[in-house]
Design goal:
single chain, 194 residues, mainly alpha, Rossmann fold, 2 domains, two-stranded antiparallel ribbon, two-stranded parallel sheet
Length: 194
């Protein structure tokens, strides 16, 4: 028999129950890597808080320092040049590029079928309804480095476009060998209109 959610308390105790991010076990290997990067033993949560605090305090300078420390890359610029995106698309094997286009089309078709209509009613003694408006700007994080995931680009950017998001910023860690974003990530971004 399927779970029946009949009130908010049941929902909170079942499908909405969340474990705190810092409540799980952390592997000794990860703790060693964090200690090496930060110079002292920290939990993953403490490490993230330290990076965020530095970026809030020092902005791009902190981003450059943490990219050098954690990714082993000294960045000069954060933006990818349009020519680099065009080169990545041109270097992508034709069948892979077609596969990316087909995946993007299928994702687009799926999300275009979802009803996203606004409605308002004055019946029932008050105003009820929903107003659907796209967010103007979103940011996407796409894993890169040693395991680039073009599917993350497609599954994040295409629904945003369908929803009407105008500006999409994509970030991905640079590869250690050349400090550049993976070409397959850039090709997927071009296909997705980012």
């Amino acid at each position: 028999m399927p779970l029946q959610i009949i009130d908010s308390q049941t929902a909170l105790q079942t499908i909405l129950r969340r474990k705190p991010l810092d409540s799980g076990e952390v592997s000794p290997l990860l703790l060693d890597r964090i200690a090496g990067a930060f110079g002292e033993p920290l939990s993953p949560l403490q490490a993230v808080q330290r990076v965020l605090a530095d970026v809030r305090r020092a902005g791009d300078l902190a981003l450059r320092e943490w990219t050098a420390r954690l990714d082993g890359v000294d960045l000069v610029a954060f933006r990818v040049a349009p020519g680099e995106i065009e080169s990545a698309v041109a270097a992508t094997p034709p069948q892979l590029l077609e596969d990316l286009r087909q995946a993007a089309a299928r994702v687009r078709q799926f999300y275009e079928r979802q009803p996203l209509t606004s409605w308002i009613t004055q019946s029932g003694g008050g105003t009820l309804g929903q107003l659907v408006r796209p967010i103007r700007r979103v940011g996407l994080y796409v894993p890169g480095g040693t395991a680039p995931l073009p599917s993350t680009v497609i599954m994040s950017a295409v629904p945003a476009r369908v929803a009407g998001v105008v500006e999409i910023a994509l970030v991905s860690p640079p590869r250690r060998e050349d400090g550049r974003i993976s070409p397959i990530i850039l090709a997927a971004a071009a296909v997705a209109g980012v």
